[in-house]
Each structure stands twice: as C-alpha cells, then as structure tokens.
Give the backbone structure.
Amino acid sequence: MPPSTKTRTRSREWYERAQQSLVEGVNSPSRGAAVYAPGPVVLERGRGSHVWDLDGNEYVDFLMSFGALIHGHAHPKIVEVVTQSIAEGSHFAAATPAEAEAAERFRRMVPTAEAVRFTNSGSEATMLALRLARAHTGRTKFLKFEGHYHGWYDPYCLNGHSHPADQLGPRENPARLPDSEGIPALVFDDVLLAPWNDVATLEQIMRQHGRELAAIITEPIMANMGCIPPREGYLQKVCDLAHEYGALFILDEVVTGFRYAPGGCQQYYGLKPDLSTFGKALGAGFPVGAVTGARAILVRMRWGSGMVLHYGTFNGHRLTMRVIAANLDLLSADDGAVYKQIYAVGDGAIAGLREVFRRRKIDTIVQGFGPMFQIYFTGRQAIHDYRDYCQYVDTAKYSRFVHGLLDRGIYMTPSNGLHWIISTAHTQQDVEALLQAADEVCAELI
Ligand SMILES: Cc1ncc(COP(=O)(O)O)c(C=O)c1O
C-alpha cells in the first residue's frame, strides 16, 4: 500500500519562506508553483529510489533529478568517492589525473568519442557544440526541430514550449515562437526550424537552405515533449541529409546518454554523429556536461589563433571527474548488466500502466521503452512530434493524475513535457507501488 502524503504543512511553510528570497521560491520555474500548483513538495533527503519531504512523507522518485540520478540517491559507491575526494581537495582548476581517467572511460563507452571536452552542464555542452560546428564549417545558420530543447542558450530558445495548435503555422515553414524575452530577434535569423520525424518536409527545407547550415541538431528521442521515439531509420536519414549538404550532425544525448545503452542512443541506433553532447546521467547527480566526437573538430579548441574558445573555472572539476569515473565503472561492470535491469523494470512499469489504463477504460498511451517513458492522455495511437503533442495531449488531465500520485507516495513532476525515469536503484516493488497508486487515481480521475 503506497503511503498517504496528504499532509504537507512544512512544505507549504517552507515554500512561503523561500519566496521571500528566491524568485518563485525556487531556482528554475519547472520546480515551483507554475508546475506544482499550489506549491512544490519540498524535499529533504533521498536514498536509492526513494525521497522524503519536509513533513517526513516518503515517495518513490520517478523524476530522478530530470534523469541525472542514474544510480538513484546516495549510491554507496558515489558517496564513498565524494567523501574521499573532497577530503583531498575538491577542485584545483589545474591538470589532474581525475579528468583523464574520466575521459578514458567516456571514450571506451561512447562509440564516436575520439576525444572529449567536459563542461559544467548540458546547456554549456550544446552551446560549445554549435560554436565548434560553426567554426568547422565556416557557416553560421543551423537547423533545430520544433519541440526540441537543447538548453537555454539564446539561439536554441525557439519553439521549445508547447502552444495551441492553431499558432504553429505550416509544417514546411513553422511559426517562430521564442521561448524567452531578452533574446535579440536577429539571433533567430540564424535558426531554421523543421518538424521532427518527418523526412519529406526536412528534405524540402534542406533543398532550399541546406548549403547555409553549419549543423542539424537533434535529440535522438524527443524528451522535452514527454517521450517521443524516432520513426524507424529517421535519425540516420537526418544524419545523411546533413552530410549531403555539408553540415554537421549533432546528436544531443544530454537526456539519452548513458541511459539507453552504455554508449547512449548513438550506440542503440547505430549512429555516427559528428558531435554529440552529454550531461545529466554522466554526472550521477553532479553538474556536468560533455562534447565529444571527431578529433578533427574538437582540436579546434586548441590554443592559438583561429581557436574555438571554451573556458571555465569549473571545467574538469576534480570531484565531479572522480564521480564520473566511478559512475561509468558502475554502468560498464559485468558487461553493462545494469542496463538489463533498467530495461526490465522500465518495460514492466510501461506494461503495467497500460494495463491499468485499459482496465479503467481511460484513453491513454504510455509511450517509450526501457529507461524512459511518458503517459499521454489522448485518443491517438501515438504522439509522433511537437504538433501531435500540442494538439492531441490533455496536459491538464495529466497534471491532475500526477497530483493524485503525489498524494499517494509517488514523486513525479506534473509537467507532461518531462518523462518518467528508471534508474539502477528502481525495483519491482517500486513499480508495484506506482501501479497501485495509478489504479487508485484512475478510479477518481475526471
Ligand atoms: C536534450 C537536452 N539538451 C540539453 C539540456 C540542457 O542541460 P542542462 O539542464 O544540464 O543545462 C537538456 C536539459 O533538460 C536537455 O533535455
């Protein structure tokens, strides 16, 4: 029986207090009342797959720090490495064995990693990848897909949020909808937009503009409109089209990296991106990002005239590098045995949820596989892209559903744009708790 978590007095009090000093009481709008109205569950500690809030309520955590916690909370090996490393000095901003040890493991796991450069977040990694692509090709424009999120760097902040379907414009020339104020309009002159999962429209756009592009950037699995897998052969086609027109193919694996396979989605789908970007699961809870790919492109960062600038006081942070090495050792142990476990637990959760919704006669699809999935309240058979998401998904119903789960000991964000995460810490019992809670919520869902 999942615990009841209806008493959240201290969360409410703390949220009131936090709003005196923090905008919206948090450090990212996705954590505050905009998503968790009337206010967030304020978390105090975590262990394995479980978290506890300020009132002592226990939850099974399926958000897992937006996927960063690939081993769950406070994994003993990570705790050991952090404790030992911090006692020796957290960071020197100097050359250390730790950064090379992390990079060596990274290269062993990621198929296209000829060299790697560590950043401090996924946003920094995608920012750097674009700068490298522009320098390498001598071109300025790039193409991104509707609904894809690549961090908050200015030129990426276009059509990353959902909008009413009648505002989206034609597929072959999508309306341009900035995600933020404060970005000069001319920044977006260098951005081409295309709908995802649609080869014919991309071919058409590439025929007109392909030769102007430094790169096409894509998430391998759309992870910021829930969880939208690519159609068969689609990603290879995007790669081929980029190359046909002399542009680079950048695969943004910030969400999928070290999650779908030891070498991420590039390994899972057999892709050879020129550059790929990582973050989240790479750091097992510590802030980090990475750009990897062809050495001929990455060496452009070498000091000298004509270099691609990439600085950062915290680049190669020693503590984080030690965590990465330990994390990647855990993930690659026994020939990547943990991936079998993640897939078994994740596929079990997906099948179980489908069965709950079928039994309760609620029009829903559970989309995704293995380590990541999303629930869409929709009458459609599948959600293939941003436009489907904007038009056919009942996000308000999803929010009510997740609020019901939060009251029954399941921690998840009510935002339909994110996705359910399975870590190596999740168990069959966690899935059973989820299914029971979901069944109860469905009984009351309107
Ligand atoms: C696909 C993708 N790329 C890049 C980023 C940015 O990463 P970070 O939040 O670490 O800056 C995110 C974050 O959610 C993401 O989902």
